[in-house]
Design goal:
The protein has 185 residues and is mainly alpha-helical. It has a single domain, classed as Up-down Bundle (Four Helix Bundle (Hemerythrin (Met), subunit A)). Helix 2 runs parallel beside helix 3, helix 2 runs antiparallel to helix 4 and helix 4 crosses helix 5.
């Protein structure tokens, strides 16, 4: 599946989860090491802002973390999706936090990030999260090959073996280093 088609599936999943987060839940811890809900949202807003510029061939703007992350999330992610859909965006080389990456390949990282952080946010706020198995399988296939060089314990931790009976999304998040009850490193 094309990374833009994947992105178009992840966007509504994220919008639904974030749309159901209340201000009282912003300090809830998440499975994403070192981040509460607010931190994951800040990270995603900052990344979306920088990467929208990169997909447009522009330098990343300097932006302070928004005071109202719940209000800023939708516009930032919409801007990123719009930038990624613009002609030539996936043909550019994108300067990622881990080096220069072909745009189409980096688009797959954006999808991976959105899918996994959606799970982080849903888990932290006790929401259901059931992305399509086909989407998760495609993202997992990409992540299986792409993550090992990025496992620095911070960007991505060592993969975790998920417990038996884990869902496809739980298997994917385990691959990124998130621990599930009963999983092992």
């Amino acid at each position: 599946m094309d990374p833009l088609d994947q992105l178009d599936q992840v966007g509504p999943l994220l919008a639904k989860v974030v749309g159901n987060i209340t201000p009282a839940q912003l300090d809830n811890p998440t499975p994403c090491a070192h981040f509460a809900v607010r931190g994951v949202l800040d990270h995603m807003i900052g990344g979306a802002t920088a990467f929208a510029a990169a997909f447009r061939g522009q330098p990343a703007p300097t932006v302070a973390p928004p005071a109202e992350v719940l209000d800023a999330f939708g516009p930032a992610l919409t801007n990123l999706a719009t930038a990624m859909h613009e002609p030539g965006a996936l043909d550019r080389t994108v300067e990622a936090p881990f080096g220069a990456v072909p745009g189409e390949n980096f688009a797959r990282f954006v999808v991976l990030d959105g899918l996994v952080h959606g799970w982080d946010l849903a888990t932290a706020t006790d929401q259901p999260y059931d992305p399509p198995d086909e989407l998760v399988a495609e993202v997992t296939a990409f992540a299986t090959d792409a993550l090992d060089p990025l496992r620095d314990g911070d960007t991505f931790a060592a993969a975790v073996t998920p417990p038996k009976g884990s869902t496809p999304i739980e298997q994917l998040v385990s691959l990124t280093g998130r621990s599930l009850a009963g999983g092992t490193r």
